[in-house]
Write a structure and sequence with these properties.
By secondary structure, the chain is mainly beta. The protein folds into five domains: 151 residues, no CATH class; 73 residues, Sandwich (Immunoglobulin-like), CATH 2.60.40; 95 residues, Immunoglobulins (Immunoglobulin-like, Sandwich); 91 residues, Immunoglobulin-like (Sandwich); 130 residues, Sandwich (Immunoglobulin-like), CATH 2.60.40. It has five helices and 42 strands.
Length: 562
């Protein structure tokens, strides 16, 4: 070998060594993509390159088949590059392509489950510095492509995972492929008591359902976590205030409430009074974010007409307000009036009992349940008059005497008030029992004729004189005897002809006695007037023998009848 040949040989060896060193560095740079140098390109052996997809390693491997065995292949005629670290030098410059990389990609898609186009893979290899030599064999400057990990040439993909964050119904995972447009799922999860607002991504940022998602990364998972906000007001399944009619009892207010979001914070019960026309807070219940159903009750002891407002607040500040029906509570008795209108002293005019009633809530002018009846009963319990808000009764004759009357007012919830008055009623005149007679003299009827010229009368006001059988009478008030001449009355004021009774006494009586003497002034007749304490008056006209003689111009000596 001449010196020129030696120089060329050394230069070739140096280039080959440089190529080997460059291959190693480049292979390290591209990771799981392997290559090898060309080495000594002399010789006549035939190299056939087959690109084969190995599913066990998920890689495209270069299988080299030679016409003649070679020592670097272990004196065999085949070698397969099963890792990027295998850098066995190939001593050929013009290999033949057997199974193309196109076929290997097709097998990779079919067996490995990929969906890569040949052009995409080739574009990826080009980006890594490899190129098609022109005969289907892929190489780079000074070496050949020997090994391609499938995951290194696929587009970047990652998983988008949805986390419901306490809710349910999150969308299923999505796979984002580099370079492929993807929209997030339109499906929204649900969570009782909350409103879904948006997704917060583990890579940062806020995403909405259906939004275009452009983030790319090589593997891993981006988690979309649901962001919830409690915008739902608490529920109130019932809110009842009873009774909704007039009642003598107490009122009851009950409720049931729940907040399945942030939970209950507080419930406030307010009361409106139609009587005072004002609101007041009557009770507050506190909770610490419970999501369980709660119940509560309030007893209304106060009298009045009320309705209630229930305000339910959750921890997020949402409120629900409910208004109840109206309740009516009457705890007051009716008020009777009219006792002052009843005449309670002795009278011979039938007394009138007249009462009216009102039914206001205590201390107010607000009408209560209203009146059901006003009745008047006698002292035997018999109802003599009835009305709704008033009653009127004028005494019948049978109630002569002293009687007590009971007046009862009843409202519509059963409260009662009562009053009583007494009447003194006397319509029977006092009795006059005397010795006078009625006679017919000379064809003339003479009443009250005192044949013996003596006026003798028993006077009383006993109950037996009345057909009404009163329990008592008013009793005598005054008795007086008059002599009447030519229409003029002159009182005869002796202790046996005149009496004044200082107080009412059923059993008072008076025995009147008067001896008509011949020396008496000439009179036309004598008149007895008796009055009782009720104002009943009885009179009796008496005629003496002397008067009779003067009328008929006769003379009769008194001795004739003594």
């Amino acid at each position: 070998m001449n010196w020129k040949s030696k120089i060329l040989l050394c230069f070739g060896i140096i280039i080959g060594m440089f190529a080997c060193i460059h291959t190693t560095v480049f292979a390290d740079d591209v990771g799981d993509t392997g290559g090898t140098g060309q080495g000594d390109i002399t010789g006549t052996n035939v190299y056939t390159f087959n690109y084969i997809y190995d599913s066990a390693r998920d890689a495209i491997e270069l299988q080299v088949v030679t016409k003649n065995p070679i020592s670097s292949f272990g004196n065999t005629n085949t070698h397969t590059y099963t890792s990027p670290s295998d850098q066995l030098v190939l001593h050929t410059q013009n290999p033949i392509c057997g199974n193309s990389i196109d076929n290997a990609i097709a097998t990779m898609n079919a067996v490995g489950g990929y969906n890569l186009s040949v052009s995409d893979v080739k574009s990826k290899l080009n980006a890594l510095g490899y190129y098609d030599k022109g005969n289907g064999v892929w190489k780079y400057n000074g070496g050949y492509l020997t090994y391609v990990s499938a995951v290194k040439i696929r587009p970047k993909v990652h998983t988008v995972h949805y986390e419901a964050n306490g809710g349910s119904g999150a969308p299923g995972n999505q796979i984002k492929t580099e370079g492929v447009q993807m929209n997030l799922s339109n499906t929204k999860p649900t969570r009782t008591g909350y409103t879904f607002k948006y997704w917060t991504a583990s890579i940062g940022g806020i995403y909405n359902p259906g939004q275009n998602y452009t983030h790319d990364q090589d593997g891993g998972t981006v988690t979309m976590t649901a962001y919830w906000k409690d915008e739902t007001a608490p529920s109130c399944s019932d809110f009842v205030a009873t009774p909704n009619y007039w009642s003598a009892g107490n009122g009851t207010v009950t409720f049931s409430a729940q907040d399945r979001g942030s939970g209950l914070s507080a419930i406030t019960l307010q009361r409106y009074s139609y009587v005072t026309r004002s609101w007041s807070t009557v009770k507050t219940w506190s909770y610490n974010g419970t999501t369980s159903k709660v119940t509560g009750s309030y007893t209304e002891y106060s009298e009045g007409v009320f309705y209630y407002k229930l305000t339910i607040t959750d921890k997020a500040g949402n409120t629900t307000t409910k208004t109840s029906a109206t309740i009516y509570l009457d705890h007051s008795n009716p008020v009777l009036s009219g006792a002052q209108n009843t005449f309670t002293d002795w009278t011979n005019v039938a007394p009138v009992i007249s009462f009216s009633a009102s039914d206001y809530l205590s201390g107010t002018t607000y009408n209560g349940s209203g009146l059901a009846s006003v009745v008047i009963k006698d002292d035997s319990g018999n109802v003599v008059a009835r009305g709704t808000s008033s009653a009127y009764y004028r005494l019948a004759a049978k109630y002569e005497g002293i009687h007590t009357w009971y007046i009862i007012a009843t409202d519509n919830v059963g409260h009662t008030s009562s009053a009583q008055v007494s009447t003194k009623y006397d319509i029977t005149v006092p009795g006059l029992d005397g010795t006078e007679v009625t006679d017919v003299i000379n064809g003339v009827t003479v009443s009250g004729y005192c044949q013996d010229n003596i006026i003798n009368q028993h006077i009383d006001d006993e109950a037996s004189r009345s057909v009404n059988h009163p329990n008592v009478t008013s009793g005598l008030k005054s008795v007086i005897l008059y002599k009447v001449y030519r229409g003029n009355k002159t009182a005869i004021t002796t202790d046996r002809t005149r009496a004044i009774f200082g107080s009412s006494n059923t059993h008072s009586y008076f025995d009147m006695y008067y001896d008509i003497n011949p020396t008496d002034d000439i009179v036309d007749y004598y008149l007895v007037i008796v009055q009782d304490y009720a104002g009943n008056t009885v009179t009796k006209k008496l005629t003496s023998q002397r008067s009779l003689l003067s009328w008929f111009h006769t003379s009769i000596d008194r001795s004739t009848y003594e």
